[in-house]
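In response to a reviewer's request, we include the raw inputs and outputs for one of the modeled complexes. The two entities were modeled together in a single run.
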Amino acid sequence: MKKQILERILIKILYFFFFLFVIFPFLWGFRTSLAERFETALIPTRFTLMHYKILFARPEFLIYLKNSAVISLLTIFATLIIALLSGYALARLKFSGQKLSGLLLILPLLPPVAILVPLVSYFQKLGLYNSIGAIVVANVVFNLPLSVWMMRNFIRGCPVALEEAALIDGCSRISALFRIIVPAVGPGIVAVAVFVFINTWNNFLYAFALTSSQSLRVLPQGILSFLGNWGTYWGGLTAAGILVMIPPVIFFLIFQKWFIAGIFGQQLK
Amino acid sequence: MIKNKHQEQAQAYAMLSPMLLLLAIFLISPMVTGLIMSLYKTSLSGITTFVGLRNFKLLLTEERFLTNLRLTIIYVIGNISISLPLAYVLAMLITKKLRGATLLRGIFLLPWVVAPIVSTVLFRSLVDPAFGPLSLLLEKISGKQIVMLADPFWAMGTIIFHSVWRSLPFMALFLASGMTMIPRETYEAARVDGAGRWKQFTSITFPLTRIHLIIILLTISLWTMQDAETIYAMTEGGPGYSTEVIAVRMFKESFINFNLNNGAAMGILLLLLGATFMFIYTRISEKD
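The model returned the following C-alpha cells for the whole complex.
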C-alpha cells in the first residue's frame, strides 16, 4: 500500500517536470512580451502593453497578418475539397492501383527544402512566381498526402448503409459524398482543417522561397525580419510570437479531441 | 456487372485526378527536374552548361560540405538520443489514467502546434546573454559568462535542445497510441509471473510498440534532417559554420544566393541521406 502511494507521488512529480519543460518557454515569452524593456526579474512587478501597441502601429504587421489569413483559408478550402474526393475514392471504390495508396504516407517524408529549388523555376516559367497563388499551391501540395490519408480513414469508419440507400435511389456518387458523407464525417473534416491550418499558418519556407516582394510576406517571415531589424528587442519579438501562436493554439485546444483521434488513433481520445 | 466495374474504376480515377495531377506536377516531377538541374552549371551571365557529376564531386571534396554533413548527423542523433528515452517515459505517464489527463495531453502537444520560427524566438530570448534565464543558469553553474549562441558547442546545444522540445510531445503521443493497443491482460499475466516494472517494459511494452518506434524514429529523423528554418533563425548556421547543417547550407545557397544548380545537387544528397536513414531503420526492424 505504501509503495503504491509512493509510486503515485513519483508519477505526479515526473508529470510536473515534463509539464514545466513544455510550458516554461511559453510562460517566459508571455512574461517578456508584457514586461518593460530592460526588466531582469523572473516575475516583473510592473506590466505593460507597450510592445503589443508598437506592433500594431506597424502597417507591415497587418499586411503579413492579412496574407497569412488569406493563404491559410484558400489552402484549407482547396485541400478539403480535393481530399474529400480522393479520400472517398480510396475508402469506397475499387480500382486497380489501389495498393499504391500507402505511398501517401511516404510522400510527406520528402524534404520540401529540396523540392522547392525546382519549384522556384517551375513557378517562374508559369508566371506564378512571387504570387499568393504560388504559396497556396505549394501549401496544398505538401499538405495533400496526409490530409487524403486522414480523410480516407474517417470515411472508412462511417457506415456504408446510408450511402447505399441513396445510391439505389439514383443519387450520384458525388451528391452522395456531399449530402451524406460530409455531414457524417464532420469531426474528421474539422480535424483535417485544423491540421492544414496549423501547417499553413506556421509555414515559413514556401513563402520565403516562392516570393520576393515585401507585400507578400507571411507572418513567420515577418517575425524573421523583425528578428533581423530589432536584434534583441525581446519585448516586441515575443509579443509578435505570442500573437502569431494564438490562432493555431486556440483552434487546436478547441478541437484537440477530434484532432488527436485523427492523427494518433481513437484510443487516445 | 462488368460494365459496373469499369464504371466504378473510371469514377475512382476521376475523383482521384485532382490529387494525382497536383502531386505529379508539383511534387514528383520537381524531383526529376532537381536531378537534371544538379547536373548543370549556370554562369553569372545566365548560360547553363552540362557538367555531369561535377557539382557532386565539388561538394563531396569540399571541407565545408563535409562539416555540413557531420553536423546534420550530429543534429539528428543528438535530438533522437535525448528525446526518445524521455518520450517513452512521457508516453507511459500519458497512458496512465489520471485526473485532468486530457487537458494536459493537449498542453503537451503545444510545442508542435507553434510555428518553428516563433519557438525559435522564444528560445533565443531564453539564452539571451544579458537576461535569458537559461544563460543565467549556465553562468551560475559554470561560473563564467558564456554567450551561448556565439559558442559553437552551446549554439549546437541550444539548437538540439529546441528540437528536443519540439519533437518530444509528438513522439510521446505516437508511442502512447501504440501502448494503448496492448491489452491489459498481458501486463496482468506478467505480474502474476512476478515480472517487475523494468521486465514488463523490456518484454512487453518495448517489443509490442516496435513498429511505432520505427515509424516515429524515421519521421523525426527526416524532419530534423530537413529542418532549415529553425537553425537559420537561431544562428544562420554560425558562429562560422559551426551549426550549418546541409538543409541550412542548401537554403542559403538556393534562396539567398540563388545558386539553384548547387542547391539542387545538395537536395539530391539530402534525399540520399534520408533514404539511408530509412534503410537503416527498416533493417533494424527486420532484425530478430
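As requested, we also summarize the result in words. Chain A touches chain B through 85 residues (CB under 8 Å). Residues 1-48 of chain A form one domain.
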